[in-house]
Design goal:
- By secondary structure, the protein is an alpha/beta fold.
- The protein has eleven helices and twelve strands.
- Strand 5, helix 7 and strand 6 form a beta-alpha-beta unit.
Length: 282
């Protein structure tokens, strides 16, 4: 993708020379205003980007192409130089990305939380429990559980919770634990179809239409906090990174105007994301 943009830029320069050095009134080349953002499926599936990107276009002039992937895949996309910006939600993976020199700086943007979803009749009896007790109960009763299994931020959070619950889920699981290697929407669909439990980010759950007999059973546990961060891919590693345009996108997200826009995204009156760019510890 990057080489394609580079070739277009060369052809544009040749065309300009053929026109005898004529200039255009619009500043910059059109493709310079298009950036690729590798982000999580939750920002896409929740509808945030559908709401936010027209605002970004209006305020900054940027066209944003989103690659919606799990956080691990999104970071790998940027490692290859195929994205200008990454917008993800797994701080440990983000810090590793920075330490390896693939990112310039991490900026906190917003947060929401994870919730444990399951059948309304709650056959495992986890409703109202703390998340670690809920996971222990699910395993003890071998209740069906759907895992994204895709190295996404949600999957990373899920694995961390199993570990904190004292369960080695990699080596100590049965047929009740189903890894699907897909995004949040697909995991929720499978949970709805199989009457299973699943960990979801709240934003995607609120936007999810095919709920069937599913409901939120575990929430408001501090361990379920879900922080999002944004980083410019390092142009030293990949000179094709559009650093000015990418930084303009980041600057808008963390500006008061951008933060207000994020806070304004609601479904049925419920706010999905809470801006916190000013929190140095986020």
């Amino acid at each position: 993708m990057k080489h394609w943009f580079g070739s277009r830029r060369i052809l544009a320069i040749i065309a300009l020379a053929a026109l005898g050095g004529q200039t255009f009134t619009r500043p910059g080349w059109a493709e310079d205003q298009t950036i690729v953002v590798a982000s999580t499926t939750s920002t896409q599936d929740s509808g945030l980007f559908g709401y936010l990107l027209p605002i970004v276009k209006q305020k900054t002039g940027l066209e944003v192409k989103v690659l919606a992937q799990g956080t691990g895949q999104a970071l790998d996309t940027a490692r290859r130089g195929d994205a200008d910006v990454v917008f993800v939600h797994a701080r440990s993976a983000e810090e590793k990305f920075l330490a390896e020199g693939f990112g310039v700086k991490r900026y906190p943007v917003m947060y929401n939380d994870f919730v444990v979803i399951g059948p309304k009749d709650d056959p495992a009896g986890i409703k109202g429990k703390d998340v670690l007790t809920a996971l222990q109960t699910i395993k003890t009763r071998a209740a069906p559980f759907v895992s994204r299994g895709d190295h996404s931020g949600t999957h990373i959070a899920e694995l961390k919770l199993w570990k904190e619950a004292g369960i080695d889920i990699v080596n100590d699981r049965g047929s009740w634990y189903k890894e699907i290697g897909q995004g949040m929407g697909a995991a929720l669909n499978m949970a709805a179809a199989s009457n299973a439990y699943v960990l979801s980010d709240r934003g995607t759950w609120l936007a999810f239409q095919n709920r069937g007999d599913l409901a939120v059973l575990v929430e408001s546990d501090k361990r379920l906090f879900n922080q999002y961060g944004v980083m410019l891919a390092n142009p030293v590693k990949h000179p094709t990174v559009k650093k000015e345009a990418g930084q303009r996108f980041i600057d808008f997200l963390i500006s008061p105007e951008g933060q207000s826009a994020i806070a304004g995204y609601k479904i049925n009156g419920q706010q999905l994301f809470y801006p916190n760019a000013n929190d140095p510890n986020a």
